[in-house]
């Protein structure tokens, strides 16, 4: 693990794991400060997990979360107070250590010279020049001039961001494009269900971010703090400013693990798992492989969520494994869905119900998971049926697959780009912002009423790229998005119901029915998911090859 000394009694570093806590204790540290909000990353342990590990090592723990780039003077004062109150030496961490260093730097402004602060931070591997400019400006970040400027700036290097960048460069190689994203690793998240089903190895779903940034695109490895759309500016962590002619916003969703009481402290143990986190998906398969009897719960939170079919995919693959091992008769499968239907597009429900019956799964609608007690192995649900009073139900489990509530990231929800519900406000056809003409959005964070899937981003990226090029040429939007989304519902190992649909639940099949009938479980759809989609994702979609994703010409109505 990394740790960098800033001053006597204080070291900082990037995100730590449970095992790192023991290492810190062995090195003599007596306290830990967490400056990273939960659910920033798919592979991030929650602060309660770290706190529990610290307590086991007889260490103090303090949770002082700071949103990237939004360090206030109050945050710095709280950090200083914690350093005074906690026994030292102290280790403070965030995603990279930058926020912790920023907090320390601001807290030391009255007692140390600016030169000393910058030198100590630099020696520890952190550039605090952005903080120096902020202090010099009385705590405010000037946005009239920027540290860098590009023709197109893309926020987020997920499926949508990388695909848009590649599609733009494929259309015009000399276009000045920058991608802003702090992550070191890019994940193929659709593969995590297969990891949880014992089909994919986790390593198949991860690649280094640097290997995926399109040629000629500048990677700004930082987190976004805020937007100033009136000044065409993005403010980064550390208070740097990037200016743009056109902006694309696609940072993905925030997984709100803390939204379920008691969940964080029991994730990854006590039979509690989730395929929505890279490090937990293998635990799902471990539980499925070892379970021979008892009750298995599979939860689904209120919409919207990434891939609405993923919660039940985990149930089907688990049921299939138990069926094939001959233990299914001893396992009580319960699907706890906060919504009122099994799947939102009715054409696919009959095929899914056949598997619900095959695995003898009980469907419980309007059941929202609100708390979990891992040691007692109990889960508590709010049951809110239409025209009925709320009820509270607590049930026991032997294993539980949890899907966390999901929201737009904090820096999106509080931004001028968001609608009243916190999503980026776009025209659902052109994906252009309704207020700011030089901003577009795609992927999970925008408010078009489509399914939030990687397949949707595959169709959206060429649309956004085409419309940006039209705007650069002084033309109206040329392409429109029809709401396409795809959800390969893995109903058993070897067969998939390939749901493909657009706005309003209209079926949008990619293949003729004689070749692949998406409303029925087929081997062909399984081969597509297992063998073809991963290479299409890595080698086509993220590289700007728009196979079966050519942008649809805009209609007069959409423009």
UniProtKB/TrEMBL annotation:
Q: Which domain of life is it from?
A: Bacteria
Residue span(s) of domain FAD/NAD(P)-binding? 150-270
MF terms from GO for this chain are: transferase activity
Q: Identify the keywords attached in UniProt to this record, alphabetized.
A: Transferase
* Residue ranges of every copy of the Beta-lactamase hydrolase-like protein phosphatase-like domain listed in the record: 7-110
Keyword Ribosomal protein: yes or no? no
What Pfam family is a match for this entry? BLH_phosphatase
> What is this protein's name?
TIGR01244 family sulfur transferase
Species of origin:
Thioclava kandeliae
Query: What lineage does UniProt assign to this protein's organism?
Result: Bacteria, Pseudomonadati, Pseudomonadota, Alphaproteobacteria, Rhodobacterales
């Amino acid at each position: 693990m990394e740790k960098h000394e800033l001053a006597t009694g204080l070291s900082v570093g990037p995100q730590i794991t449970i095992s790192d806590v023991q290492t810190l204790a062995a090195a003599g540290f007596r306290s830990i400060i967490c400056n990273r909000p939960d659910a920033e990353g798919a592979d991030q342990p929650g602060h309660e997990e770290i706190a529990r590990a610290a307590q086991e090592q007889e260490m103090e723990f303090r949770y002082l979360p700071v949103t990237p780039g939004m360090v206030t003077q109050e945050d710095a004062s709280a950090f200083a107070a914690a350093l005074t109150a906690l026994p030292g030496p102290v280790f403070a961490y965030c995603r990279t250590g930058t926020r912790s260093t920023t907090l320390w730097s601001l807290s030391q402004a009255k007692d140390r010279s600016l030169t000393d602060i910058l030198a100590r931070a630099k020696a520890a591997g952190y550039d605090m020049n952005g903080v120096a400019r902020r202090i010099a400006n009385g705590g405010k970040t000037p946005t009239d001039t920027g540290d860098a400027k590009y023709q197109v700036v893309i926020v987020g290097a997920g499926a949508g961001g990388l695909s848009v960048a590649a599609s733009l460069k494929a259309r015009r190689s000399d276009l000045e494009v920058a991608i802003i994203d702090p992550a070191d690793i890019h994940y193929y998240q659709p593969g995590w269900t297969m990891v949880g089903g014992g089909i994919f190895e986790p390593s198949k779903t991860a690649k280094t971010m640097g290997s995926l940034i399109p040629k000629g695109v500048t990677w700004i490895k930082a987190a976004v703090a805020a937007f100033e759309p009136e000044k065409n500016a993005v403010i980064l962590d550390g208070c740097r400013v990037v200016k743009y002619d056109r902006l694309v916003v696609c940072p993905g969703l925030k997984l709100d693990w803390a939204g379920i009481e008691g969940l964080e402290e029991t994730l990854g143990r006590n039979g509690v798992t989730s395929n929505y986190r890279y490090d937990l998906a293998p635990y799902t398969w471990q539980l499925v492989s070892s379970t021979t009897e008892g009750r298995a719960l599979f939860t689904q939170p209120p919409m919207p969520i990434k891939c609405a079919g993923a919660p039940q995919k985990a149930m089907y693959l688990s049921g299939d494994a138990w069926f094939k091992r001959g233990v299914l008769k001893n396992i009580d499968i319960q699907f706890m869905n906060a919504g009122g239907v099994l799947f939102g597009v009715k054409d696919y429900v009959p095929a899914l119900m056949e598997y619900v019956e095959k695995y003898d799964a009980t469907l419980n609608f309007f059941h929202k998971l609100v708390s979990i007690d891992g040691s007692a192995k109990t889960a508590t649900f709010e049951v809110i049926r239409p025209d009925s009073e709320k009820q509270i139900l607590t049930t026991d489990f032997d294993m539980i697959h949890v899907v966390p509530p999901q929201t737009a990231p904090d820096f999106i929800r509080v931004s001028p780009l968001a609608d009243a519900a916190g999503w980026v406000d776009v025209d659902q056809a052109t994906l252009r912002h309704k207020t700011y003409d030089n901003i577009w959005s795609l992927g999970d964070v925008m408010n078009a009423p489509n399914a939030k899937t990687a397949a949707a981003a595959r169709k959206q990226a060429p649309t956004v790229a085409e419309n940006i090029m039209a705007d650069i040429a002084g033309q109206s939007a040329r392409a429109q998005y029809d709401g396409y989304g795809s959800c390969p519902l893995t109903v058993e190992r070897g067969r998939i119901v390939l749901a493909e649909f657009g706005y309003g639940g209209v079926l949008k099949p990619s293949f003729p029915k004689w070749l692949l009938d998406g409303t029925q479980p087929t081997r062909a759809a399984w081969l597509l998911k297992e063998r073809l989609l991963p290479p299409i994702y890595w080698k086509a979609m993220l590289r700007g090859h728009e196979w079966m994703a050519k942008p649809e010409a805009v209609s007069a109505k959409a423009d």
